[in-house]
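User: Could you write out the 3D structure of this protein bound to protoporphyrin IX containing FE? I've included everything you need below.
Assistant: Certainly. Input first, then the structure.
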Amino acid sequence: VEASARQLVHAFAADGSADFAELFARRLPVRVIMNLLGVSEDNDDFRAWYRAIVDYSGNFRGDPEVSRAGLEAGAELADFLDEQIRRRRARPGDDLISLLCASEIDGTRLGDDVIKSFGLVLLAAAGETTEKALNLTVCHLLRSHAGAAVRADDSLLGRALAETLRLTPPVQIITRETRQAVALSGGTLPKGALVFLLISAANRDPARFRSPDVFDVDRGDAEADRAFTGAALHLAFGSGRHFCLGASVAHMEITTALRILFRTLPDLRLPPGFVPEDVGFVTRGPRRVPIEFTPVPHGAAR
Ligand code: HEM
């Protein structure tokens, strides 16, 4: 994570301005996943498949071209993973695919299909969520009064991330099907209903969170150390059996990346008057994050 974050920041540090969303947040998570899976960083196809799959999963308008490109990317990626699994079975490395190839559950090796599905799930679950969380955290930190204190003391980054996830969860909605009728305060959901659960609304429940619409890194009720565990009060990582498997990875990745960003570009700011425009339905975050800073000459960035 450190090496990738440094490379990405250094690539624009001499320019004095950049779109953080395009040049950093969009690129870091997919690089981290490629490193985990042992896929070469030069693999532009992999990056393109990732993009097409993310666009497909957010295609609620049903644009036929986005659907076609997403399905095609999914098929190509599945073929690619098949080939990677075949190679790792023949010659294991120290990557996650090799580890899964060697893993056993109750004495049985995982099948190729399970390993392939795991790779596809990882891409969907660990990519766009982290991308959106990076953009949202940077926007909150550059727009709030508390931002300067957090940037001066990077041990506070975890708290800032926790509060970002509460106030503006990158995943806004999760779905469930009721196995039996469920009585709630507003009525009864019938058995077999498809339910859209609004994490973003629950995270602003005034009965749970004082001044819920305020970005407050000091709030005792969203304590940072438990905000990345199943005991979290906010619901940005879900809850219960399906609680996000990658919450601690997301914490490590985002705090590491932002520490490097703010140390390299200490006077980072948004352009005067810029207000981020959040877009998206199931996942949501700013479309663009233009940043300005004093240029750091090539080779001088730490
Ligand atoms: C800030 C970043 C992230 C957010 C906001 C996030 C959010 C979520 C949410 C809300 C769920 C629950 C879905 C449900 O209950 O239907 C979930 C599940 C999951 N997440 Fe994350 N996630 C993030 C990062 C990651 C990362 C980095 C990984 C992998 C390294 C990951 C892997 C998973 C997996 C595998 C599941 C499925 C767990 C299951 O169904 O048992 N996530 N995530």
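The first helix runs from residue 2 to 12.
User: Perfect, thank you.
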